[in-house]
Inverse folding.
């Protein structure tokens, strides 16, 4: 079936000219001459692409674009702004409203056709990721200092060797993923949070991401204390996660220690919650309380993986078999202490699994990633059945 393209323009001649050109290219053409018609047709006909003029009588193209992005039903539809406005500020406004591309009139038919093919191809690639049941994995600590960041980075790095993977830290003012991987004070998440949720799109998120030399993609918080004042709400976290899912097969989220309104929302939407636990009486007591709270917000035992983090060799640590009994939950993995390897990897700006792949702790992370991936896909299949 040919792709359907909705052309929105109050100029009848433009509608006819662009429509004829697209029909000759084999596309099915839909038309709208007002912003309201565009919103109605986008919702009812679900086109594969929208070509949107800015200057219209009832509402301008920026507002139409914002409303399309705010509606979950039309949010994924790619949009090309096509207008006579040529100022840089107009283009910036178009992208900020959620447009995927921007063309000025008049343009050569070959350029328009090329841009359309490129945007449709990108949208199809993202759609395949979604259709392939993108997986979200939330990493949360029962208490502070248990290495949720190290765990998130290494799980994501192991997964990225096979599938497109994004790792992010929803911890403004306390994010350390960027520092550990050599990116310094990355402010991608802070920049996103400065915008209304309605303006958040896959493109705007992509613009704030960075890519590690290993190919792992990252959306980062910085460790600047003033960023702790930023309001990351459950709604903004949900919108960010939803758009990240459209960009990769796996999304790994470092949620830090303890349950908050934001981490609760992310874990409710994720396929799997990974809980880091320390083998001490205090740590296990806190983990037990957290498991109870997770159950209270609807996260079942089957969606939780527990990882026992040994930070130091100690005969005083609670044996893992006893820890399982205390928590009434099996351990998915036990991570050995490896402070020297962790230090060297951080100095090199590399995940442990890539810095020393033959190290015992690296193999533990890799095996854990495999088990988490398999279990997440089971959870995704259950939720879609």
């Amino acid at each position: 079936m040919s792709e359907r393209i909705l052309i929105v323009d109050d100029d009848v001649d433009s509608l006819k000219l662009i429509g004829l050109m697209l029909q000759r290219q084999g596309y099915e053409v839909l038309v709208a001459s007002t912003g309201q018609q565009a919103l109605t047709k986008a919702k009812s006909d679900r086109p594969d692409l929208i070509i949107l003029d800015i200057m219209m009588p009832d509402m301008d193209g920026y507002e139409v674009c914002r409303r399309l992005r705010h509606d979950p039903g039309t949010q994924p539809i790619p949009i090309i702004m096509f207008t006579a406005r040529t100022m840089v500020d107009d283009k910036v406004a178009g992208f900020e409203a959620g447009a995927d591309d921007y063309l000025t009139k008049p343009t050569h038919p070959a350029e328009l056709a090329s841009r359309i093919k490129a945007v449709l191809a990108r949208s199809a690639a993202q759609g395949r990721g979604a259709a392939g049941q993108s997986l979200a994995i939330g990493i949360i600590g029962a208490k502070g200092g248990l290495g949720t960041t190290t765990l998130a980075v290494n799980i994501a790095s192991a997964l990225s060797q096979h599938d497109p993977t994004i790792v992010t830290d929803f911890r403004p003012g306390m994010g350390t993923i960027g520092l550990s991987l050599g990116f310094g004070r990355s402010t991608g998440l802070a920049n996103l949070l400065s915008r209304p949720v309605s303006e958040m799109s896959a493109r705007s998120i992509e613009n704030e991401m960075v890519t590690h030399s290993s190919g792992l993609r990252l959306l980062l918080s910085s460790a600047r204390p003033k960023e702790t004042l930023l309001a990351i709400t459950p709604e903004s976290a949900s919108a960010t996660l939803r758009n990240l899912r459209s960009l990769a097969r796996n999304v790994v989220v470092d949620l830090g220690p303890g349950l908050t309104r934001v981490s609760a929302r992310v874990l409710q939407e994720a396929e799997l919650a990974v809980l880091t636990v320390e083998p001490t009486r205090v740590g296990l007591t806190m983990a037990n309380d957290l498991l109870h709270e997770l159950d209270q917000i609807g996260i079942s035992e089957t969606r939780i993986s527990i990882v026992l983090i040994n930070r130091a060799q100690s005969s005083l640590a609670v044996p893992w078999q006893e820890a399982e009994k205390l928590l009434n939950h099996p351990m998915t993995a036990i991570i050995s202490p490896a402070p020297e390897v962790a230090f060297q990897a951080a100095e090199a700006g590399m995940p442990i699994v890539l810095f020393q792949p033959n190290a015992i702790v690296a193999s533990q992370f890799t095996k854990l990633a495999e088990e988490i991936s398999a279990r997440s896909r089971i959870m995704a299949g259950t939720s879609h059945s």
